[in-house]
Design brief:
By secondary structure, the protein is an alpha+beta fold. It contains 19 helices and 28 strands. 29% of the residues lie in helices and 24% in strands.
Length: 762
């Protein structure tokens, strides 16, 4: 098939997007639309004493200043996290809801206090400048290690010592026993730095309240309309048929657009209050303050190794920064999502992890590209590399000894995951070969002669993704033979219109130009679980396969009934149904079989089996130089060998991997969210927060081994997050190799490396 599975089809959605015909949320306008500006706290920890509005209320064009009392009058509930865990003492963790607008206290810089509704955004901003709020400011705490010290500032009075949860996974007793009996014990302490997601398109919303039908419609840039619909229904105390969410084109998400935010609730509530559509859009600086952040962990780990360099046991303790409020999946990310993957691709028989969630006076954290798995991969891969250095063994050799062999698969890890497929040693072997790893010392000598320190770093990775709730798809055939797909996932730039089109093209045997994909409308699409955790193709694609095959079966059955023949006599090939001497095109079938009021259609759902995931895996090799005089890193070569199971579109796949690697390089070398001692965000713009540019990355060498997944109908493994998981440890391993040091925390900025170089001189 020219446009079927396995073909490098260029993205069919790009013509629309590149010619300015995309529809992003900020392109949508309604008649009589008003604008919202959110007034936020300038303090990290303070009590609101009083608010003076007299001058602000005189402003022409002001419609309404909304506070917490206005929200309360609408009987709107506080926001709650969607996932709680049980503490290791057996008690349930304490749920601490988040207010929509601050009542008496603010807990981080950016905490929403007032929503100003006006005829224009400029007017709303002018009103905000005239509002005077008096605060009683308190000390704040932003560092997770300091936040748990005795007699420190309390971020949330509901919990003691700012500990949100204290959770464990694994066999502590036997893990400690095996570590204590190990010949070698390798220890590491590391920070997984806080990141700001920074999608190209900032968040925006339009809230529309229909007074006649008492219905709310939210237009927003999201990663799935149905999950938002369910959350908003609960918060507004409305049946789900009274809440609608619509998402058009989305300019990137990386996880942070899957969540519910106060601004979404506010724009809907404001529309009810002022009886006009209400639009809000974040500036880039506002995004730094109000978007969910990612990562921010401090971990200690010990790896026990026997006399043959075989890993015996792994012990990990992690502090995970929750920020001031628990976001939707904030608790899930450092616990089940991340901790379960700590043993990586290695045959480690015993493992135990303790994770404590910590409240601080910072913005909330949640899932960001990889969502817990980058943290796990970074920890184990840094620990393995440090072990190789301390034991004076090649980083390749120590991995060869300890990687799970393909003969052991299916393999159940010490932390409960069952890997269904993969050949980790082949990925390693191929990556070592293509990167000319064994010839590195020659290249190092060349760099030294030029005055540069050259390093090479290797990392293996595996992640659990492509799981979660059920996905739904519906396939219909129009009177002209065109095919429409409606599906519950949401493209954020991954190319869903193309990859889904290829799946349908493969099954129906028709040209991809006949296929239209519709997403992001809870009115038109009855259900879905959205996009996140690299689940769209493994789960959504499987549902689409079911729906398409159901449609063929339905047509065959209907034809057999209409013409009174055995269904087995009805054949189908490349858009033609045939039996006896008759044949029908899809257009003819649609006109023959569909009703006057609707098209010929059939749906399908698919749900991953309980506890099953896809397990993409691979090996990254990074080679770089460090300028001894400046500490600046220059990545010279980057090789990656992946296993994503069945590949739908090699071109799209490579683009996903490239993008993920760039974000991983960003975390390793550039990106760092910094708060000062007063809780002020000092990296609150792109002038202060460095993201990688094209000149910072090399051309990537990408290849893959196609080992089919056994946990879904297509044999595919999720690919969207993989690059961001394998890249950070590969880059830092290369930096440590170049400097001949045991460890350096991310980001490895030039000043930090320059100091290390000069300290080594001394």
């Amino acid at each position: 098939m020219k446009f079927g599975i396995g073909q490098s089809v260029t993205r069919i959605e790009d013509k629309r997007l590149l010619t300015g015909n995309g529809i992003y949320n900020d392109d949508i306008f309604f008649e009589n639309q008003s604008y919202m500006y959110v007034l936020r706290s300038p303090h990290a920890n303070a009590k609101i004493l009083d608010i003076e509005l007299s001058e602000a209320l005189k402003t022409s064009g002001l419609i309404k200043i909304i506070n917490w009392e206005d929200i309360k009058r609408l009987s709107i509930n506080n926001m709650k996290t969607t996932f709680l865990v049980k503490n290791r003492d057996g008690n349930e963790m304490i749920d601490t809801p988040r207010h929509i607008l601050a009542k008496h206290y603010v807990r981080y810089v950016g905490d929403p206090i007032l929503a100003i509704i006006a005829d224009s955004l400029d007017i709303a901003e002018q009103v905000a400048e005239k509002i005077i709020i008096n605060y009683e400011e308190y000390d704040s705490v932003t560092d997770i290690s300091k936040a748990i010290q005795k007699n420190i500032i309390s971020v949330r009075n509901e919990v003691s010592n700012n500990v949100c949860f204290d959770w464990e996974l694994g066999d502590k007793k036997n893990t400690l026993k095996d570590i204590n009996s190990s010949k070698f014990k390798i220890n590491i302490e590391l920070i997984n730095n806080r990141l700001v997601p920074n999608p190209m398109e900032c968040r925006s919303t339009i809230g529309v309240y229909d007074d006649k039908n008492d219905e709310y419609t939210l237009h927003c840039s999201s990663q799935g309309v149905h999950s938002l619909k369910r959350k908003l229904s609960s918060i507004f105390n409305k049946n789900e048929d009274k809440i609608h969410v619509i998402t058009k084109d989305v300019g990137g998400g990386f996880g942070m657009k899957i969540f519910n935010y106060p601004e979404y609730i506010l724009s809907l509530a404001a529309s009810n209050i002022v009886k006009r559509p209400v639009k809000w859009k974040a500036s880039r600086t506002e995004s730094f303050l109000s978007d969910i952040h990612g990562r921010d962990h401090f971990s200690k780990a010990t790896l026990g190794i026997d006399e043959n360099y075989k890993f015996k046991a792994l012990l990990v303790e992690t502090l995970a920064n929750m920020g001031a409020y628990m976001s939707d999946f904030a608790v899930f990310i450092p616990t089940y999502a991340g901790t379960g993957m700590l043993t990586g691709c290695y045959d480690i028989k015993k493992a135990y992890a303790n994770v404590r969630g910590i409240y601080t006076n910072t913005g909330p954290t949640d899932a960001y590209r990889g969502a817990g798995r980058p943290e796990a991969a970074y920890l184990i891969e840094r620990l393995v590399d440090k072990a190789a250095k301390e034991l004076k063994i090649s980083p390749v050799k120590i991995r060869e000894i300890n990687l799970i062999d393909k003969s052991q698969i299916p393999y159940t890890t010490a932390l409960g995951h069952t890997y269904d497929s993969g050949d980790f040693k082949k990925n390693l072997k191929d990556a070592v070969s293509v990167s000319l790893f064994n010839e590195f010392n020659k290249r190092r000598e060349v760099s030294l002669k030029k005055g540069y320190l050259r390093g090479i770093g290797i990392s293996t990775y595996i992640e659990a993704c492509g799981g979660g709730g059920p996905e739904f798809a519906k396939v219909s055939i129009g009177k002209n033979g065109n095919i429409t797909v409606k599906i519950g996932t949401q493209s954020n730039g991954q190319g869903h219109e193309t990859s889904y089109g290829q799946i349908v093209s493969e099954i129906l045997g028709v040209d991809i130009s006949l296929i239209q994909v519709v997403q992001g409308n809870s009115k038109e699409i009855e259900k879905g679980s959205g996009t996140g955790g690299s689940r769209s193709t493994p789960v959504g694609g499987s549902a689409l396969k079911v729906a398409t095959e159901n449609l063929i079966k339905k047509i065959k059955t209907t034809l057999s009934e209409s013409f009174q023949i055995n269904p087995s006599l009805v054949g189908y090939k490349e858009g033609i149904f045939y039996f006896n001497n008759k044949s029908f095109t899809l257009a003819e079938i649609s006109n023959l079989l569909s009703s006057d009021n609707g098209s010929l259609e059939e749906g399908g759902t698919w749900t991953p089996a309980q506890g099953t995931f896809t397990y993409p895996n691979g090996t990254h090799v990074c080679e770089l130089e460090i300028n001894k005089e400046t500490g600046k890193v220059n990545i010279l070569a980057y090789h990656v060998v992946d296993d994503f199971g069945k590949v739908i579109n090699p071109l799209l796949l490579e683009g996903q991997v490239h993008g993920g690697i760039v974000q991983g390089i960003g975390q390793a070398l550039f990106e760092e969210t910094l708060y000062d001692e007063n809780g002020q965000l000092i990296s609150g713009s792109l002038m202060d927060y460095a993201i990688p540019r094209a000149s910072d990355v090399p051309n990537f060498n990408f290849s893959y081994n196609e080992i089919l997944c056994k946990n879904n109908l297509l044999g595919v493994k999720g690919a969207g997050e993989a690059g961001a998981i394998g890249a950070p440890p590969a880059v830092i391993n290369a930096v440590c190799n170049a400097l001949s040091i045991n460890h350096v925390d991310m980001p490895a900025k030039p000043e930090k490396l320059w100091k290390i170089i000069n300290e080594k001189k001394d």
